[in-house]
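Regression check, 2-(butylsulfanyl)adenosine case 712:
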Amino acid sequence: MSGEGEDAGATAGIAVEALTEAEAARELARLAEVIARADRAYHGRDAPEISDAAYDALKRRNAAIEARFPALVRPDSPSARVGAAPAEGFGKVVHAQPMLSLENGFAEADIADFDARIRRYLNLAPDAPLAYTAEPKIDGLSLSLRYEGGRLVQAATRGDGSTGENVTANARTVADIPATLHGAPEILEVRGEVYMRHADFAALNARQAAAGERTFANPRNAAAGSLRQLDATITAARPLHFFAYGWGELSAPLAATQWDAVARLAALGFATNPLMRRCQGVAALAAYWREVEAQRASLGYDIDGVVFKLDDLALQRRLGVRATTPRWALAQKFSAERAWTRIEAIDIQVGRTGALSPVARLTPVTVGGVVVSNATLHNEDYIAGRDARGAPIRGGRDIRVGDWVQVYRAGDVIPKVADVDLARRPPGTQPFVFPDRCPECGSAALREPGDSVRRCTGGLACPAQAVERLKHFVSRGAFDIEGLGARTIEAFWAEGWLREPADIFTLEARHGAELRAREGWGEKSAANLFAAIAARRTIPLDRLIFALGIRHVGEVAARLLARHYGSWAAFEAAMTSAEVGRGPAWEELVAIDGVGEVLATSVVTAFHQPAERALVDRLVAELSVEPVAPAAAADSPLAGKTIVFTGTLARMTRAEAKARAEALGAKVAGSVSARTDLVVAGPGAGSKAAKAAELGVQVIDEDAWTALIGAG
Ligand code: IVH
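Current build output:
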């Protein structure tokens, strides 16, 4: 089971929109601490504990929560800090102008938003020409170089954005950094990125390893570690490079545009990035982003995105800066939709239908801007490296605890494991043995022939299934009870207060007083919870059917069933009388468009299991179930009618005719009976039309049908 305790990280997994105010405050406190720790590791010791993308994700989460709860913004909020305070050992430098950070974009829509925001701010029409510069975002460390009278007098790291470290002696050893300039303004602060090329990084690490010295995790750390050496002769021996892309204090402007200013820096002798380009319009910026991403692996140095800057410096000045980021620039990151990480453990979760689902617990890694620490492994065949028919997948490579795996996210779904790297498999690992007993209740876990999933046979006696069913019961498309989320369900389960859905509606009578007196709850939240529960005693039929958690009955199927049967009494009577595979009730069920035999079998079987049935009855006794009107307006001529189509229709397919009829509130049946209201007969209609005539059922042709549904 996925139960997280009430530890400090308990708010970490909650979606921003779902946080209560108290949870948001706790989460902001946690983020402030985690981000500060990451800042210290990153800036202070050159040894990051989390990836840049994971760090970005934390900062974005922090910003999103702050945007939702502005009153909760902390004095030590990470959004008010750019980096970390300077490390001990170097002199401090207060930047004449702060060294800013950049706002991040991740999707193409972020580029359009960026452009639209700027246009709004400047009151420019959407089609007014507006130029941007576009350039790679170098994954190194930023440096500010101060020249006075054409001579390099000071070099400083970014530090916390306002105060950095004095690394002048070290910077003087970097070949790309000129010691003197000719024709520069009297005061010129050049800003750019110190980085290490891949080949130099590999050679440095090889030398370090040979000398028994520590190696670096990546080129960025190597660059930072090299620049921030107290002994500048070590820096001199390290292959560092520098790209200039901006400036700080100036005694005279460099140019009127970003483009020309960077060209001026190049003319003064600085290395500037050769991929820099001027672009007009969102489409060109997006194309540049994709183009540079395609070249990413062949550049020879690390980049983690591109940076767009408004070209016109006068407009840049008008836009100005927010707390730590300029309004005129955007760092458009590359998506890391796939990432490699290690499997620390494989857990088995038991779902509400008893399915045993293997979940890989991963060393956290960022995938497409989201930190991923769990991924589904689907089922035992997938782990073993074969498909449901026994054919090899991934070349037959199995997945083990300790393996390096590639994870990916497809849409919003749970991350998945795409591949495993056998070359990195640690010695001594064992194939994963899939349990044949439920890890929650110990019942046998069986795999039916043709099913890829192993299921616990414990039914409602299995606590995992019971809890998961309760969570499903209160979920959004089901009873959606405010204040009764998954975590509270787990807590109430642990108390023994809830065992099945009906218990929710007797909770106040049984444990109201205790809950009101409970720490962390109190009178008000308990009252709110009981009011929310009471409000759901009246529930629409489709929600109730979905909430029952019957296998294969999702929200769509629940709605189909509800619309077809209309009331709980009709639905319950039909399911009770139905027999799997035969009889009129079964025929009616499988005739519902969208209801297949698998779904029908599942529902009918559920209603015939005594324990299940008793549970449903206890629940319904607590409720008032609202009937669901057929899809159409009540005044539709077809509302509530049963229609049979026969013969060929010229103007629409049978499927479309059926969909139109159902949209207008009719039921479509496959055969004519005394309950049929209308038969639509096209050319070639045979026995059904004859039967209708015999029973006195109205028969119309396609023209009349078209007129009836208003589709002429
Ligand atoms: S412009 C006011 N341009 O990215 C704008 N920054 O995430 C200041 N970076 O602190 C930065 N490549 O260390 C700019 N082409 C580029 C960059 C770049 C890398 C770094 C820089 C900055 C950080 C922000």
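Comparison notes: Residues 21-44 form the longest helix (24 residues). Residues 345 and 361 are 5 Å apart (CA to CA). No diff flagged against the previous build.
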